[in-house]
Design a protein that fits this description.
By secondary structure, the protein is an all-alpha fold. The protein is 80% helix and 0% strand. The protein has three helices and no strands. Helix 1 runs antiparallel to helix 2.
Length: 108
């Protein structure tokens, strides 16, 4: 048989803290992913608009403005959605009854 030495961890593990860290990391990854996807769409549309031969300069400028506005809207939507989600998760983790009640109302 193989003799396996086990080193015990001397740092106490706080389950709530580690769970919160995991959720926070996942939310940051999702936020970054949404931002990069929106940025890629914005860059692609901008390049297509700039390369278009059948548009006047005014049409190109208007299309670029609309493209930028849409990208900006997507970024703010992501911030608001993940802000609400993170506050809800923190409220549930803390056991705040008003937040739990509001989430139940939202889901229903």
């Amino acid at each position: 048989m193989t003799n396996i030495d086990c080193i015990e961890n001397q740092i106490p593990v706080n389950l709530a803290e580690s769970s919160f860290r995991i959720v926070t990391d996942r939310m940051k990854e999702a936020t970054d992913s949404l931002y990069h996807t929106s940025k890629e769409k914005y860059d692609l549309k901008a390049r297509l608009i700039e390369e278009a031969d059948d548009m006047t300069t005014k049409e190109k400028l208007d299309a670029l403005d609309q493209n930028y506005d849409r990208h900006n809207q997507e970024v703010w939507q992501g911030i608001v959605i993940f802000g609400v989600l993170s506050l809800s998760i923190i409220g549930i983790a803390a056991g705040n009854p008003s937040i739990v009640k509001n989430i139940r109302r939202l889901v229903a």
